[in-house]
Protein backbone atom coordinates (compact mmCIF):
# COMPACT_ATOMS: atom_id res chain seq x y z
CA UNK A 1 0.00 0.00 0.00
CA UNK A 2 2.82 2.33 0.83
CA UNK A 3 4.49 1.78 -2.52
CA UNK A 4 1.18 2.21 -4.41
CA UNK A 5 0.40 5.49 -2.64
CA UNK A 6 3.89 6.86 -3.17
CA UNK A 7 3.82 5.87 -6.84
CA UNK A 8 0.38 7.27 -7.74
CA UNK A 9 0.82 10.46 -5.73
CA UNK A 10 4.18 11.04 -7.47
CA UNK A 11 5.89 11.78 -4.16
CA UNK A 12 8.90 9.62 -4.81
CA UNK A 13 11.58 8.49 -2.41
CA UNK A 14 13.92 10.80 -0.59
CA UNK A 15 16.71 10.62 1.94
CA UNK A 16 14.25 10.50 4.84
CA UNK A 17 11.56 7.77 4.69
CA UNK A 18 8.94 7.20 7.41
CA UNK A 19 9.10 3.76 8.98
CA UNK A 20 6.08 3.82 11.29
CA UNK A 21 2.45 3.42 10.22
CA UNK A 22 1.61 6.83 11.61
CA UNK A 23 4.32 8.51 9.58
CA UNK A 24 3.33 6.68 6.45
CA UNK A 25 -0.33 7.60 6.99
CA UNK A 26 0.56 11.26 7.42
CA UNK A 27 2.65 11.11 4.22
CA UNK A 28 -0.23 9.53 2.25
CA UNK A 29 -2.77 12.07 3.58
CA UNK A 30 -0.50 14.98 2.75
CA UNK A 31 -0.02 13.55 -0.76
CA UNK A 32 -3.79 13.23 -1.28
CA UNK A 33 -4.36 16.78 -0.07
CA UNK A 34 -1.63 18.10 -2.36
CA UNK A 35 -3.05 16.25 -5.40
CA UNK A 36 -6.54 17.54 -4.63
CA UNK A 37 -5.37 21.12 -4.27
CA UNK A 38 -3.44 20.89 -7.52
CA UNK A 39 -6.48 19.51 -9.36
CA UNK A 40 -8.70 22.25 -7.95
CA UNK A 41 -6.25 24.95 -9.01
CA UNK A 42 -6.00 23.51 -12.51
CA UNK A 43 -9.79 23.22 -12.82
CA UNK A 44 -10.38 26.78 -11.62
CA UNK A 45 -7.73 28.22 -13.93
CA UNK A 46 -9.05 26.21 -16.89
CA UNK A 47 -12.59 27.38 -16.13
CA UNK A 48 -11.47 30.98 -15.98
CA UNK A 49 -9.43 30.71 -19.15
CA UNK A 50 -12.21 28.97 -21.08
CA UNK A 51 -13.91 31.13 -23.68
CA UNK A 52 -17.62 31.72 -23.75
CA UNK A 53 -19.78 30.96 -26.75
CA UNK A 54 -19.67 34.53 -28.06
CA UNK A 55 -15.91 34.70 -27.55
CA UNK A 56 -15.53 31.39 -29.38
CA UNK A 57 -17.54 32.73 -32.31
CA UNK A 58 -15.39 35.86 -32.43
CA UNK A 59 -12.20 33.82 -32.19
CA UNK A 60 -13.34 31.50 -34.98
CA UNK A 61 -14.25 34.48 -37.14
CA UNK A 62 -10.84 36.12 -36.64
CA UNK A 63 -9.02 32.85 -37.30
CA UNK A 64 -11.06 32.37 -40.45
CA UNK A 65 -10.09 35.82 -41.74
CA UNK A 66 -6.42 35.18 -40.97
CA UNK A 67 -6.48 31.81 -42.72
CA UNK A 68 -8.19 33.40 -45.70
CA UNK A 69 -5.41 35.97 -45.95
CA UNK A 70 -2.73 33.27 -45.65
CA UNK A 71 -4.52 31.23 -48.32
CA UNK A 72 -4.53 34.19 -50.68
CA UNK A 73 -0.82 34.85 -50.05
CA UNK A 74 0.05 31.19 -50.60
CA UNK A 75 -1.94 31.08 -53.84
CA UNK A 76 -0.23 34.28 -55.01
CA UNK A 77 3.19 32.78 -54.20
CA UNK A 78 2.32 29.66 -56.19
CA UNK A 79 1.32 31.74 -59.21
CA UNK A 80 4.41 33.94 -58.90
CA UNK A 81 6.83 31.04 -58.67
CA UNK A 82 5.09 29.31 -61.58
CA UNK A 83 5.53 32.40 -63.72
CA UNK A 84 9.19 32.80 -62.73
CA UNK A 85 9.93 29.16 -63.52
CA UNK A 86 8.28 29.54 -66.93
CA UNK A 87 10.16 32.80 -67.55
CA UNK A 88 13.58 31.37 -66.63
CA UNK A 89 13.09 28.20 -68.64
CA UNK A 90 11.15 29.24 -71.74
CA UNK A 91 11.63 32.96 -72.29
CA UNK A 92 15.41 33.19 -71.89
CA UNK A 93 18.05 32.06 -74.33
CA UNK A 94 20.44 30.96 -71.63
CA UNK A 95 18.92 28.98 -68.75
CA UNK A 96 20.28 29.69 -65.28
CA UNK A 97 19.90 26.39 -63.46
CA UNK A 98 20.55 27.78 -59.96
CA UNK A 99 17.84 30.39 -60.35
CA UNK A 100 15.43 27.79 -61.74
CA UNK A 101 16.17 25.48 -58.80
CA UNK A 102 15.57 28.34 -56.36
CA UNK A 103 12.19 29.18 -57.89
CA UNK A 104 11.26 25.51 -57.95
CA UNK A 105 12.10 25.25 -54.26
CA UNK A 106 10.00 28.33 -53.49
CA UNK A 107 7.22 26.90 -55.65
CA UNK A 108 7.17 23.69 -53.59
CA UNK A 109 7.19 25.68 -50.34
CA UNK A 110 4.26 27.78 -51.60
CA UNK A 111 2.34 24.62 -52.48
CA UNK A 112 3.09 23.17 -49.02
CA UNK A 113 1.98 26.37 -47.27
CA UNK A 114 -1.17 26.41 -49.41
CA UNK A 115 -2.02 22.84 -48.41
CA UNK A 116 -1.29 23.61 -44.75
CA UNK A 117 -3.56 26.65 -44.80
CA UNK A 118 -6.33 24.59 -46.37
CA UNK A 119 -5.89 21.92 -43.70
CA UNK A 120 -6.00 24.53 -40.92
CA UNK A 121 -9.10 26.00 -42.48
CA UNK A 122 -10.79 22.59 -42.52
CA UNK A 123 -9.89 22.03 -38.86
CA UNK A 124 -11.29 25.43 -37.95
CA UNK A 125 -14.51 24.69 -39.80
CA UNK A 126 -14.78 21.35 -38.01
CA UNK A 127 -14.25 23.01 -34.62
CA UNK A 128 -16.72 25.76 -35.45
CA UNK A 129 -19.24 23.18 -36.56
CA UNK A 130 -18.83 21.23 -33.34
CA UNK A 131 -19.45 24.40 -31.34
CA UNK A 132 -22.43 25.66 -33.29
CA UNK A 133 -23.92 22.27 -34.03
CA UNK A 134 -24.85 21.74 -30.39
CA UNK A 135 -27.19 24.74 -30.40
CA UNK A 136 -28.52 23.80 -33.82
CA UNK A 137 -28.99 20.22 -32.70
CA UNK A 138 -30.82 21.40 -29.60
CA UNK A 139 -33.12 23.61 -31.67
CA UNK A 140 -33.72 20.84 -34.19
CA UNK A 141 -34.51 18.34 -31.45
CA UNK A 142 -36.92 20.81 -29.84
CA UNK A 143 -38.67 21.41 -33.15
CA UNK A 144 -38.90 17.68 -33.85
CA UNK A 145 -40.31 16.98 -30.39
CA UNK A 146 -42.87 19.80 -30.69
CA UNK A 147 -43.86 18.54 -34.14
CA UNK A 148 -44.29 15.01 -32.78
CA UNK A 149 -46.43 16.32 -29.92
CA UNK A 150 -48.62 18.30 -32.33
CA UNK A 151 -49.05 15.26 -34.55
CA UNK A 152 -49.88 13.12 -31.53
CA UNK A 153 -52.56 15.60 -30.45
CA UNK A 154 -53.94 15.70 -33.99
CA UNK A 155 -54.06 11.90 -34.10
CA UNK A 156 -55.85 11.84 -30.74
CA UNK A 157 -58.46 14.29 -32.01
CA UNK A 158 -58.94 12.24 -35.18
CA UNK A 159 -59.34 9.06 -33.17
CA UNK A 160 -61.95 10.74 -30.97
CA UNK A 161 -63.90 11.92 -34.03
CA UNK A 162 -63.65 8.45 -35.57
CA UNK A 163 -64.98 6.89 -32.37
CA UNK A 164 -67.89 9.36 -32.30
CA UNK A 165 -68.75 8.63 -35.91
CA UNK A 166 -68.51 4.89 -35.34
CA UNK A 167 -70.88 5.17 -32.38
CA UNK A 168 -73.32 7.20 -34.51
CA UNK A 169 -73.13 4.60 -37.28
CA UNK A 170 -73.72 1.82 -34.75
CA UNK A 171 -76.78 3.61 -33.37
CA UNK A 172 -78.15 4.15 -36.87
CA UNK A 173 -77.60 0.47 -37.71
CA UNK A 174 -79.43 -0.53 -34.54
CA UNK A 175 -82.36 1.78 -35.43
CA UNK A 176 -82.46 0.53 -39.04
CA UNK A 177 -84.78 -2.51 -38.46
CA UNK A 178 -87.42 -0.34 -36.76
CA UNK A 179 -87.27 2.16 -39.60
CA UNK A 180 -87.59 -0.62 -42.16
CA UNK A 181 -90.65 -2.05 -40.41
CA UNK A 182 -92.27 1.40 -40.28
CA UNK A 183 -91.58 1.98 -43.96
CA UNK A 184 -92.99 -1.43 -44.87
CA UNK A 185 -96.13 -0.78 -42.82
CA UNK A 186 -96.58 2.61 -44.47
CA UNK A 187 -96.17 1.03 -47.90
CA UNK A 188 -98.78 -1.61 -47.06
CA UNK A 189 -101.22 1.04 -45.81
CA UNK A 190 -100.70 3.16 -48.93
CA UNK A 191 -101.20 0.08 -51.10
CA UNK A 192 -104.44 -0.79 -49.28
CA UNK A 193 -105.70 2.77 -49.72
CA UNK A 194 -104.86 2.64 -53.41
CA UNK A 195 -106.67 -0.68 -53.77
CA UNK A 196 -109.77 0.62 -51.92
CA UNK A 197 -110.03 3.80 -53.97
CA UNK A 198 -111.52 2.13 -57.12
CA UNK A 199 -114.22 0.36 -55.06
CA UNK A 200 -115.15 3.64 -53.36
CA UNK A 201 -115.32 5.38 -56.71
CA UNK A 202 -117.52 2.61 -58.10
CA UNK A 203 -119.88 2.82 -55.10
CA UNK A 204 -120.12 6.58 -55.45
CA UNK A 205 -120.79 6.23 -59.17
CA UNK A 206 -123.50 3.63 -58.52
CA UNK A 207 -125.16 5.91 -55.96
CA UNK A 208 -125.02 8.80 -58.39
CA UNK A 209 -126.55 6.60 -61.12
CA UNK A 210 -129.37 5.52 -58.80
CA UNK A 211 -130.09 9.10 -57.84
CA UNK A 212 -130.11 10.17 -61.47
CA UNK A 213 -132.45 7.28 -62.36
CA UNK A 214 -134.82 8.18 -59.54
CA UNK A 215 -134.80 11.80 -60.61
CA UNK A 216 -135.55 10.84 -64.22
CA UNK A 217 -138.34 8.51 -63.09
CA UNK A 218 -140.02 11.20 -60.99
CA UNK A 219 -139.65 13.70 -63.79
CA UNK A 220 -141.24 11.25 -66.25
CA UNK A 221 -144.17 10.59 -63.89
CA UNK A 222 -144.83 14.27 -63.46
CA UNK A 223 -144.84 14.83 -67.22
CA UNK A 224 -147.07 11.77 -68.01
CA UNK A 225 -150.38 13.18 -66.42
CA UNK A 226 -150.99 16.67 -67.83
CA UNK A 227 -154.81 16.34 -67.28
CA UNK A 228 -154.38 15.89 -63.59
CA UNK A 229 -152.05 18.88 -63.49
CA UNK A 230 -154.68 20.94 -65.32
CA UNK A 231 -157.39 19.96 -62.81
CA UNK A 232 -155.38 21.31 -59.90
CA UNK A 233 -156.37 24.78 -58.62
CA UNK A 234 -158.96 25.44 -61.37
CA UNK A 235 -161.98 25.83 -59.10
CA UNK A 236 -163.40 29.25 -58.55
CA UNK A 237 -166.12 28.29 -55.97
CA UNK A 238 -165.79 26.10 -52.88
CA UNK A 239 -168.78 23.97 -53.97
CA UNK A 240 -167.10 23.27 -57.30
CA UNK A 241 -163.99 22.23 -55.46
CA UNK A 242 -166.03 19.97 -53.21
CA UNK A 243 -167.84 18.42 -56.15
CA UNK A 244 -164.64 17.82 -58.00
CA UNK A 245 -162.88 16.35 -54.98
CA UNK A 246 -162.77 12.55 -55.10
CA UNK A 247 -164.78 10.69 -52.51
CA UNK A 248 -162.87 8.29 -50.34
CA UNK A 249 -164.56 4.99 -49.88
CA UNK A 250 -163.64 1.40 -49.44
CA UNK A 251 -164.40 0.62 -53.05
CA UNK A 252 -162.26 3.44 -54.27
CA UNK A 253 -159.37 2.72 -51.97
CA UNK A 254 -159.39 -0.95 -52.82
CA UNK A 255 -157.53 -1.30 -56.07
CA UNK A 256 -155.33 -3.89 -57.72
CA UNK A 257 -152.36 -1.62 -57.24
CA UNK A 258 -152.74 -1.92 -53.47
CA UNK A 259 -152.83 -5.67 -53.59
CA UNK A 260 -156.38 -6.05 -52.12
CA UNK A 261 -155.58 -4.07 -48.99
CA UNK A 262 -158.40 -1.95 -47.45
CA UNK A 263 -157.87 1.40 -45.77
CA UNK A 264 -160.18 3.21 -43.34
CA UNK A 265 -162.30 6.00 -44.73
CA UNK A 266 -161.15 9.30 -43.33
CA UNK A 267 -163.66 11.77 -41.95
CA UNK A 268 -164.15 14.55 -44.50
CA UNK A 269 -165.44 17.89 -43.31
CA UNK A 270 -167.96 19.17 -45.86
CA UNK A 271 -168.48 22.87 -45.95
CA UNK A 272 -171.85 24.41 -46.71
CA UNK A 273 -172.41 26.58 -49.68
CA UNK A 274 -171.39 30.12 -49.34
CA UNK A 275 -174.15 31.28 -51.71
CA UNK A 276 -177.62 32.07 -50.17
TrEMBL record:
<dbReference type="GO" id="GO:0005516">
    <property type="term" value="F:calmodulin binding"/>
</dbReference>
<keyword id="KW-1133">Transmembrane helix</keyword>
<dbReference type="GO" id="GO:0016020">
    <property type="term" value="C:membrane"/>
</dbReference>
<keyword id="KW-0813">Transport</keyword>
<keyword id="KW-0407">Ion channel</keyword>
<dbReference type="Pfam" id="PF02888">
    <property type="entry name" value="CaMBD"/>
</dbReference>
<keyword id="KW-0472">Membrane</keyword>
<feature type="domain" description="Calmodulin-binding">
    <location>
        <begin position="64"/>
        <end position="140"/>
    </location>
</feature>
<dbReference type="InterPro" id="IPR013099">
    <property type="entry name" value="K_chnl_dom"/>
</dbReference>
<dbReference type="InterPro" id="IPR004178">
    <property type="entry name" value="CaM-bd_dom"/>
</dbReference>
<feature type="transmembrane region" description="Helical">
    <location>
        <begin position="24"/>
        <end position="46"/>
    </location>
</feature>
<keyword id="KW-0406">Ion transport</keyword>
<dbReference type="InterPro" id="IPR015449">
    <property type="entry name" value="K_chnl_Ca-activ_SK"/>
</dbReference>
<keyword id="KW-0812">Transmembrane</keyword>
<dbReference type="Pfam" id="PF07885">
    <property type="entry name" value="Ion_trans_2"/>
</dbReference>
<dbReference type="InterPro" id="IPR036122">
    <property type="entry name" value="CaM-bd_dom_sf"/>
</dbReference>
<dbReference type="GO" id="GO:0016286">
    <property type="term" value="F:small conductance calcium-activated potassium channel activity"/>
</dbReference>
<protein>
    <recommendedName>
        <fullName>Calmodulin-binding domain-containing protein</fullName>
    </recommendedName>
</protein>
Amino acid sequence: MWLVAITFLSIGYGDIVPNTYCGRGIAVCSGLIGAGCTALVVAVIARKLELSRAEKHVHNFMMDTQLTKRLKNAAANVLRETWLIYKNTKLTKKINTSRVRTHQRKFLLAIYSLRKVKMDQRKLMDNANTITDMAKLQNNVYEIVSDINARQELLDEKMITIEDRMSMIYEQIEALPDLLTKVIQQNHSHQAIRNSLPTLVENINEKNDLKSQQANYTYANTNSNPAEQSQKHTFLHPNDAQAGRPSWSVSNLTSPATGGRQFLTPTVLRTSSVDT
